[in-house]
Amino acid sequence: MSNRKPQLSDDDEKRMKRREKNRVAAQRSRKRQTQRADELHEAYECLEQQNSLLKKEVQVLLEEQKRLAEALQSHEPLCPVLNHEPLSYVSCLNHEPLCPVLNHKPLCPV
Question: What would the DSSP string read from start to end of 21-75?
Answer without folding.
Answer: HHHHHHHHHHHHHHHHHHHHHHHHHHHHHHHHHHHHHHHHHHHHHHHHHHHHHHH
